[in-house]
Amino acid sequence: MTSDLASLSDKEAPALGFHEHDHDTCVSGALAAADERCAEKGLRLTPVRRKVLELLLQEHRALGAYTILDLLRDAGFGSQPPVAYRALDFLVENGFVHKVERLNAFVACAHPGENHSPAFMICRVCDAVAEAYSTPSKGALGAAARAAGFQIERTVVEAEGVCPACVDKATS
Amino acid sequence: MTSDLASLSDKEAPALGFHEHDHDTCVSGALAAADERCAEKGLRLTPVRRKVLELLLQEHRALGAYTILDLLRDAGFGSQPPVAYRALDFLVENGFVHKVERLNAFVACAHPGENHSPAFMICRVCDAVAEAYSTPSKGALGAAARAAGFQIERTVVEAEGVCPACVDKATS
DNA sequence: ATATCTCATGTGATCTTATAACATTAGCAG
DNA sequence: CTGCTAATGTTATAAGATCACATGAGATAT
């Protein structure tokens, strides 16, 4: 690819979606919403679980389980893989976090509580991940599934490419 | 972005993988086609690469890299991971094989030479994988990408659920 | 208040998946 | 044949995920 991308040595966490926003508010708001939702549904947002969610909201990009584990250790939690994986399992199961299959990594949900099928746009240059909605039952896949008699339970929809910011940098 | 796709699924067998077919012919035919396509494009379908493709065609389901590696060893090839991964890289890069991200496994392409975006239906009961076409630019994801200015280069579209055969078994 | 049940966490070991690094070999061009 | 390039072989290790079992914290019912 083009050489001017080398200047991107600094892989800073880009935005949710691909735009700027008030990050502190976004983190604390999301955490508060999670607290509330767990209370409503009788779920236990325990310290580890809450911390993992906070980390993912804070970093605002997809993190591998072992990166999370390192951060957990720094925060004084257990440092063996199951600690991270169990918290992630809980968060994924309850819709607070999604797994990005293409990256074997996890990202805080951008639309929690809406019971949606997520779709991701993954920038191969800066690793930013933006979440969009997908409508699996409507497209070609849904049609193929209906035609074949396949019952869809869950979908993985991920696009890899270049985010607007990196496109700009590359063409300027 | 939705209704025009129904015709697409009707014109062909819905998905290779959920129905019977003449398997020997399908394997040898696909191998011959691969030979030809490589010759045309100046690619080297070396013995390991050809063997990996043959194994995937033969098994007709998604295989993990280490399963393939075992089969390669049985066939007298090198038995270290890079042997399998390099052959798989070649086959994936040139469209003979797809990676199923959800399974971290590989499957022979059902529509080689058509330069398509694959979509998969993965049965969580019997592990069968069927390939369909996807039309990433048409659905919600394509719309979101255009709106955001994201340039899609590659898409991962995978549905997890229950295949027709396993649905039948479950309800009978 | 305490016994007890359940769910969550801590920990060590292990398994699966994937890549880095470097030596060797095969196929091709001059 | 020589020297280049692409492919393979091989060792080692990184990265991702799970199993099994011990310990602890919260709720509930006496």
Please specify the SSE layout and strand pairing.
The structure is a homodimer of 172-residue chains.
Chain A: H1 23-41, H2 47-59, H3 65-74, H4 81-93, E1 97-100, E2 105-108, E3 118-123, E4 129-133, H5 140-148, E5 151-162, H6 164-171
Parallel strand pairs in A: 3-5
Antiparallel strand pairs in A: 1-2, 3-4
Chain A binds a DNA duplex (30 and 30 nucleotides) through residues 44, 46, 48-49, 64-66, 77-83, 85-86, 90, 104.
Question: Structural class of the helix and strand makeup of chain A?
Answer: alpha+beta
What pattern of helices and strands is seen along the backbone of chain A?
HHHHEEEEHEH
Principal-axes geometry of chain A comes out as globular
| Widest beta sheet: strand line-up of chain A | 4-3-5
Helix count from the secondary structure assignment of chain A: 6
Query: What portion of the residues of chain A fall into strands of 2 or more residues?
Result: 15-25%
CATH topology of chain A: Arc Repressor Mutant, subunit A
Helix share, percent of chain A: 40-55%
Given as residue ranges, the uncertain stretches of chain A (5+ residues, pLDDT < 50) are 1-15
Largest sheet of chain A: 3 strands, mixed
Tell me how many strands of chain A there are. 5
Measured distance between first and last alpha carbons of chain A: 14 Å
User: Radius of gyration of chain A over alpha carbons?
Assistant: 17 Å
**Arithmetic mean of pLDDT of chain A:** 87
